[in-house]
Amino acid sequence: MCGIAGIWGEPDKLVLNSMLEEITHRGPDGKGEIFKDEFALGHNRLSIIDIDGGTQPMTNEDKSLTLIFNGEIYNHNEIKKDLNSHEIETDSDSEVILHLFEDEGKDVVKRLDGMFAFAICSNKDVFIARDPLGIKPLYYGYKNDNLYFSSEIKSLVKATNDINEFPAGHYFTNSQGFKKYYDLPTIPDKFSEDIEKITNNIREKLEDAVIKRLMSDVPLGVFLSGGLDSSLISAIARKNTEGILHSFAVGTPQSADILYSEEISKYIGTKHHTFKYDMKEVLEILPEVIFHLESFDPALVRSAIPTYFVSRLAQKHVKVVLSGEGADELFGGYHYLKKISNTKEELYRELKNITGNLHNTNLQRADRITMANSIEGRVPFLDIELIEEASKISPELKLFFKESDGSLIEKWILRKVSEAYLPQDFVWRKKEKFSIGTGTAEILESYADEAITDNEFSKRNLISDVEIKSKEELLYYKIFKQFYSSSNILKTIGKSRSLNPGVVYH
């Protein structure tokens, strides 16, 4: 896991260095640069796989191609078996990408199972790609006919005011521009409704997804908030891990997350670590969190606070963590979904929509905040094979109508899956949002109500370039603008549906 930055056009060492300097938190273990006639590439490394041999930028055998890469390729050992014509010099997944590109060109992206943002340059061509869902971040912009790209906005603004998000599931070449290579599954002709078959298939795919993501040459742990999603991932990781498995949870002293996480940790057998924070600590860390998050969306900021604290806690013990992002989108976990007309087609479209927009909502939060603390976050629920399996399930088994009391149970089918791993009373308890479970939401909402006067809120349209819907959002926006003044950045801001159910995605 790393931070990357590059220039396609006229190389500029000062600019590239300033871009890399802004993202040293993404890769404190090493720094590399290369300058050629047509490009400059830079890399800050967080060593996870092949600690001694995975230094970047990396070149092929004849030095004609140069790679910078951020991510993890879980099937790199399988791909390596097909690279017999190459001299493999390292055990890193980075080298596999480079040689596979030599053999298969732009189709390299179709072979990679993992999360990635990478660039491969020669003196004539540039190839840049981002993983199917945008788990790993990438931004780009132009200035004076030069193309600049980097892992984070704060880095890219050192080179240009033209700020754009590199689209998920796309690649770019200097000759053809952007090309889409991945789409989420379309609505099936017939949904699967066999509960036993579904639960068996999801368990198999989820176990496979977790096992893949246990690949690491450094200590690995799990975020265990005490909610269903993280508890399920933690239980499967514990089942498939030898020795100690560290787990981490944070919250206010009497928060639900602290209590439930301790209960689940004892049940599955992890070495559990907790951190309890108060209002003062939340407000002190708020500007730093918004700076790293690169967003002022209220739902993201709320959940980014506990993510920051738990990442900081985890960093003392491990370098890689597994988390539960993506389960709500795949299996219908948000409360607002209950307001949608419960037709299979409409609910399917909404779940597909929010899954496709994770790249600048919860995935952005997960990446930025873990990397702000120099740890790598992995998201098993967003394994492509699991996504495709989940897309076959009838939405009525995700948001399930309970005839006895007329209620709708979110993530019903995932709860059925979880029965094989977790206590029954835990599996079927009511869901709470991460920020609510940790006690953070109440602190932030109360503070915003005091910090932003009614008069200031009434004049919000005079100071903002976007629609502001609450005092809380205005508070975050004002902090955000202290770090990111250009209005060009605003188009990168994702809007979470959980607090803005009427927001329109494009």
Q: Which structural class is indicated by helix and strand composition?
A: alpha+beta
CATH architecture descriptor of the largest domain: 3-Layer(aba) Sandwich
Total beta strands? 19
* Uncertain segments: none
Strand content: 15-25%
In CATH terms, the superfamily of the largest domain is: HUPs
User: Largest sheet, described in full?
Assistant: 6 strands, antiparallel
- N-C termini distance: 29 Å
Give the averaged pLDDT, no decimals.
93
Work out the radius of gyration: 22 Å
CATH fold category name of the largest domain: Rossmann fold
Q: How many helical elements?
A: 21
Helix content: 25-40%
Task: Compute the number of structural domains.
Answer: 2
State the CATH class of the largest domain.
Alpha Beta
The coarse overall form would be globular
Task: Characterize the structure shown.
It is a single chain. The protein contains 21 helices and 19 strands. It is an alpha+beta fold and 506 residues long. It has two domains: 2-180, Aminohydrolase, N-terminal nucleophile (Ntn) domain (Glutamine Phosphoribosylpyrophosphate, subunit 1, domain 1); 196-492, Rossmann fold (3-Layer(aba) Sandwich). It has a six-stranded antiparallel beta sheet. Strands 4-5-6-7-11-12 form a six-stranded antiparallel beta sheet. Helix 6 runs antiparallel to helix 14, helix 7 (228-239) runs parallel beside helix 8 (256-268) and helix 9 packs across helix 10 (298-314). The two termini are 29 Å apart. The relative contact order is 0.12. The model has no long low-confidence stretch (mean pLDDT 93).
